Amino acid sequence: MLPALIVFVLDTLTLIAIYLIVSISLNIEYGYTGIADFGKAGAVAIGAYSIGAIPGRLLMYLLAIKGDYIMDNTKVVATINKFLQKNIAIAAAMLLLSLIVAGGLGTVFGFLASYPVARLKGEHLAIFMLAMAEAIRYVAYCYAPLVGGPYGVTVPDPFRFLAGSYRIIGISIVIIIISLGTFSYIERLTKSPLGRTLKAIRDCDIAAEVLGKDVAGYRMKIMVLSSATAAVAGALYAFYITYVSGIAYDRVDWTFWPWTIVVLGGMANNWGVALGTVTFIVMRRLIIFYKRGLEPILPFDVVWLEYILLGLTLILILMFKPEGLLPEKPIKTVELNKYKKEKSKSS
């Protein structure tokens, strides 16, 4: 049995890793390309719903388990978990295939959403994406055969072979590795010529189009990439908590908080987003952990303390440091660097 402090730290690190994936996907959309995606919760929910709906049913069919997946969910998943506990290779394959499926469905979602994204701007785009995410959430809420509606479903646990609290070590390591890999990929992508093109589209899409750039095409590709990345984050979170509910992936936790993280850390700066993620998650965890102790002295219900303090933090950042903790740095071209080196040598 692991000490409670270690479990708390691992849980915090895992949440940081998951939110880093979501926030970095939003940063490449808005920070670099200028796409105001206020429907990030939709892509995250797509990934989570795929985990709640597909792997359990597939294993139920392959293992010839009788019953209804939704009505007999607890019994069915318990049988599946016993099988996965003894077959580690199949559990690993299920995890990998589930993440691929989640990313694929996120790609489809991004592709369908990219058509209006390529044409809408500003508040029109933000409202459209927000409405689209809410529509997805309420479909899952009202259509119980998908993931059990408001009651939700338990999902198969590919880390069942790890006994007790040691499970959190295994799944945390996997999620952190995937998060770091995603961060590294997006960082390399934005440092490439593509990153400069995206910033040009963000700053003045008309000028970029005049210079021969396919603005609509770039926006569609970034939307697809971002949605697939966020869907993988939703799938990882579903595996982490081993539960999916139709109403769980709301706009506060999976849209507004990632926006807060990006603004806090610094838009168009991946390292700033990483710093913002760590700062935000640690602050939020500490508030949740200690807020009950403040209940006797607060003039309002302590449940609102998290939203008040984090909202106040965002307001203060926008007032006194709107560029974020780590502001965006201008990208220097290779030719400019060579020119400066040659000039320094000649002088």
Describe the structure.
By secondary structure, the chain is an all-alpha fold. The chain has one domain (4-249). It is 73% helix and 1% strand. It contains 15 helices and two strands. Strands 1-2 form a two-stranded antiparallel sheet. Helix 1 (4-33) packs across helix 13, helix 8 runs antiparallel to helix 11 (215-241) and helix 13 packs antiparallel against helix 14 (305-320). The protein is globular and about 75 Å long. The protein starts with a helix and ends with a helix. The model has no long low-confidence stretch (mean pLDDT 90).
What topology does this entry show?
Elements: H1 4-33, H2 40-53, H3 55-62, H4 73-86, H5 88-117, H6 122-142, H7 144-147, E1 153-154, H8 167-191, H9 193-203, H10 205-210, H11 215-241, E2 243-244, H12 251-265, H13 270-290, H14 305-320, H15 334-346
Antiparallel strand pairs: 1-2
Helix pairs in contact: 1-8, 1-9, 1-11, 1-12, 1-13, 2-5, 2-6, 2-11, 2-12, 5-11, 8-11, 12-13, 13-14
